[in-house]
Structure formats: structure tokens, C-alpha cells
Amino acid sequence: MTSPSYGNEIPVEPNSLYICLNQILSPGFHWSLYVTDAKGAAVRYEWAEVQGRASTSDPLEAFFYTPTHPVMEITRDLSCNLAFIKISAYTAPANPTIQYYVSMFHDIFPTSFSNVKRNRDHGISCRTWLMAALERMRTAGVINLSASEVAGLEARVIAIGQKAEEEAAKGDFTTVLTAL
């Protein structure tokens, strides 16, 4: 038996910040952040669906973080990484740890509802979580952009993701690597 192939490795740089867009079944894409350490090992931070909820009344989504090394074009749950967008204005803090980012991100959304509609009605999504995370990073001084420049990243990332989706629809599943 052979092990599954996850496509090619995505070359991430040490001490860097990336926005990752993943293919999903509905229009749009899943947004997550990848932060690499001095050795280039990455950790994915995201707002995502809770797998295996005990009850349908339990929260549908939550904050997660996962060490992810190496970073591949196809995730272990077989989702295609459409785009990896390096945020050039990021400066790694001195001796950052996973816990540094967890403490910064874990309470962006203090609650989650039990269904997608209620979460979206309250502005809770992976995209809004990521944009709030970037703003927290800006406030902490690790992203050297103004608040309006951070907010402006959203439209630029969406445009990159839409182009990547168009290419994937044509059969080109090569992850777009770019920087903003």
C-alpha cells in the first residue's frame, strides 16, 4: 500500500506570515494564516468547522492551530491550497512561540453558534476571523501597515483567490505563490 500524495511542497520562508486560501465546495474559499518560525516550520491558525461535534447544539466552528510541516499543495483532508500569499509587511517578533499567537488569536470570536447561518448573520467566518487576526497583529506591531492598509488586503486577497479558482476550474491545481 502506498501513502497518499499531497502534491508538491509549498516553499515557505522562515519568519514569515502567509494567508492561505483553500478550495471549498461552495463559492469562495477557506481563509487561514500560516506563521513560520526561524527554521521555516509552519503553524496554521484558523477559524474552522468543529469535526465530530457531540451535539448539533454545540458550536459549529472554533479557533484551531496546527503545526504543519512541510506545507503541501493538498492538505491532509484533501483540500487544495489555492493560494499562499506572503504578507511582506510582517516582522517576526523576537523569539515567538506558538502560544504567543494562540493568546493573540484564541478569543477573536468569544462565541460560535450551532449553525452556519447564525454565525454568518453575526459576522463570524474564517475570512472575518483572519482579518481581525491581521488587525491584532498590526496592533501588536508585527505587521507594519496602517489599519486601512490591513483592511485593504481583503479585496486584494479575494482577487488573487478568484484568479486561482479560475485556473483550478481549468484543471491547473498549482498553488499560486505571491506576496503583498
Could you characterize the architecture of this molecule?
The protein is α+β, with helices and mostly antiparallel strands and about 180 residues long. It has one domain. It is about 30% helix and about 25% strand. It has helices at about 100-105, 115-120, 125-140, 145-170; strands spanning about 15-25, 30-35, 40-50, 60-70, 80-85, 175-180.
Give the class from helix and strand content and strand pairing. alpha+beta
Write out the strand line-up for the largest beta sheet, numbering strands in chain order: 4-3-2-1-5-6
Multimeric state of these chains? single chain
Low-confidence stretches: none
Share of helix, binned: 25-40%
Main pleated-sheet profile:
6 strands, mixed
Put simply, the count of helices is 4
How many strand segments? 6
List the domain count as a whole number: 1
Percent in strands: 15-25%
From the alpha carbons, calculate the radius of gyration and give it in angstroms.
16 Å
* N- and C-termini, Cα separation: 42 Å
Mean pLDDT: 88
Q: What's the SSE pattern?
A: EEEEEHHHHE
Cα shape: globular
